[in-house]
Each structure stands twice: as C-alpha cells, then as structure tokens.
Design a protein that fits this description.
The strands form three sheets. A four-stranded parallel sheet has the order 5-4-1-6. A four-stranded antiparallel sheet has the order 7-10-8-9, with no helix packed on it. A two-stranded antiparallel sheet has the order 2-3. It is α/β, with parallel strands linked by helices and 176 residues long. The protein contains five helices and ten strands, in the order βββαβαβααβαββββ. A hairpin with a 4-residue loop joins strand 8 (149-153) and strand 9 (158-162).
C-alpha cells in the first residue's frame, strides 16, 4: 500500500516557529508533527510513502528521513506553487497510480485515537463499500463557518465541501 502525507501549508499562525521549519516538521510531544499521520498510515502496512512539500521542503525531507521505517520506499512531491484542494494528490499521482487504493493524510494533523486499528477498520469499510473515498472526520469549532469543512448527511455520506451548507440536515466536520 502507498501513503501520501500532505504538507503544503505555510504555517503562518505559528510564526516565528515556522520561519525555519515547515509546520509538519515542528515538534509536538518531542516528535515532528508529520510523525503522527505517518504512524497512522503505517498501520496499513505501507510499502511506499510520498511526502508532499512546498514551504521549506528541506525541513520536511529531514524530518521524514528520520521517521520512515526501514524497507519503506520514500518519495517527495514538491508543489512550487500551492495547487489548492486536491492539488497535492494530483501532483503526486505518478507515485500513487500503481495502487487502486492509497491513503492520504495531512502532515500537520495530530490524531490521537485510542483505537490502534482505526485505519485498518476504515480501509476494510472502504473496500467493502467499494467507495471512491473514505474520510476520517471530527468535530471542530468554527468548521463550516470560519473554516471550510466536509458536509455529511445522517447516513454518513459526503454531500459537499466548504463553508456553505449544501442541503438541509447535513452537519459539517473537519477532515483529518
């Protein structure tokens, strides 16, 4: 299985910390933030991982090379200019296209869940439903009004993205 860790943001809200390192390379609990999404993706048995870079790419490369497990092929995909929603995945498409299923995570998403099999259960559900995409979401204050999010109906189906409610009886979540 292949994984893609997106880290294209500028980390402006964490300045001055992000003047020398990209946000995913900053330490949280004594580890670069990108360690957390890598850990979750690696529970799926990664054979290859792609790290998307933009701002201060060398800081991402250094952090990634220290955390990637031996035997896992490491790639980097660079966005010279931010490509927008889905742009990081599109930019890494040649590294991902040999697998029907691949996993993507935000490089600055620190997900702490007590279920060590969360990703495996998500992958099994994804395959069972023959889904186009399966998203891990969580509540977050201001999502859907101050920041864009994922609008989901009562059946758990994605109905839209952004700040505008696409239809009645949908709830907005942050995507991890």
């Amino acid at each position: 299985m292949r994984g893609l860790i997106l880290s294209a943001g500028l980390g402006e809200r964490l300045r001055p910390l992000t003047l020398k390192r990209a946000k995913p390379a900053l330490e949280f609990l004594n580890m670069p933030m990108l360690t957390f999404p890598y850990h979750w993706l690696n529970t799926l048995g990664l054979k290859e991982v792609v790290f998307n870079t933009h701002y201060l790419p060398d800081s991402i490369r250094r952090a990634a090379m220290h955390i990637v497990s031996p035997g896992i092929r490491l790639h980097f995909s660079h966005e010279a200019e931010i490509l927008g929603s889905g742009g990081g995945i599109w930019n890494a498409r040649f590294d991902l296209m040999n697998d029907k299923v691949f996993a993507v995570a935000n490089g600055d998403a620190v997900v702490l869940d007590p279920d060590p099999h969360l990703m495996q259960r998500m992958l099994e559900q994804h395959k069972r439903n023959q889904a186009v995409a399966t998203l891990l979401v969580c509540p977050l204050e201001g999502v859907g009004s101050k920041i864009p999010g994922v609008w989901i109906n009562r059946r758990g189906m994605v109905r839209g993205f952004g700040k505008v409610q696409p239809e009645p009886e949908t709830e907005c979540f942050h995507y991890a």
